[in-house]
Specification:
By secondary structure, the chain is an alpha+beta fold. The protein is elongated. The protein is built from three helices and six strands; from the N terminus they run H-H-H-E-E-E-E-E-E. Helices cover about 65% and strands about 20% of the residues. The protein has helices at about 1-75, 80-100, 105-125, and strands at about 130, 145-150, 160-165, 165-170, 170-175, 175-185.
């Protein structure tokens, strides 16, 4: 019986040691899981913070782009306006000269010079060209017929007179010339 009692005691001790080891293992696993949960919560918090910062940066970038676009549209013609300031000043001088002088030929010459200055500036700096197609074949893509007249001696439609000259910007018609068109006489 002593052997059986020793065996039972040994089993009881082993069982208690197993329970203690199991409890220690459970505590250890719980501590590990708690640590892992804490680590994951920190990671989630960091990712949320990062996502919020990136969203804010994206919104700020969009606002900056919107503002730059508005400014680009608002000031798109700044260089053109700056180019036109000298001719405007020259027109003002011509008006002042007309008030002081009655020499209309000189005043007319000054105004013609300012007009030439504007046309040259717009052509050289901005690609704007005027065209006056008098005597040319009628081209409806560049001209608007305001009147038609039958004319003897022509085989196809020709521009007889230009009411308003046309303008092209870099080769594209931005205002058609308004013209009187001569068409062949019908018999």
């Amino acid at each position: 019986m002593a052997d059986e009692e020793i065996k039972k005691e040994a089993e009881a001790e082993t069982s208690e040691e197993s329970k203690e080891t199991a409890q220690e293992t459970e505590v250890s696993e719980v501590d590990e899981l708690k640590a892992k949960v804490k680590e994951l919560e920190e990671t989630v918090s960091d990712l949320k913070d990062k996502a919020l910062r990136e969203a804010a940066e994206t919104e700020n970038y969009k606002k900056r782009l919107r503002q730059e676009k508005e400014n680009a549209v608002k000031y798109a013609n700044e260089a053109l306006i700056r180019d036109l300031l000298d001719p405007l000043d020259n027109f003002s001088r011509a008006i002042e000269a007309s008030e002081k002088s009655k020499d209309f030929d000189t005043i007319r010459t000054g105004v013609v010079m300012v007009e030439d200055q504007i046309h040259t500036l717009l052509k050289n700096n901005w690609g704007l060209e005027a065209f006056s197609p008098e005597g040319e074949d009628f081209d409806p893509s560049e001209m608007e017929a305001c009147m038609m007249q039958e004319v003897e001696g022509i085989e196809k439609e020709k521009v007889l007179q230009v009411f308003v000259k046309g303008y092209k910007l870099h080769g594209k018609v931005i205002r058609a010339a308004k013209v009187v068109v001569g068409k062949p006489k019908s018999n």
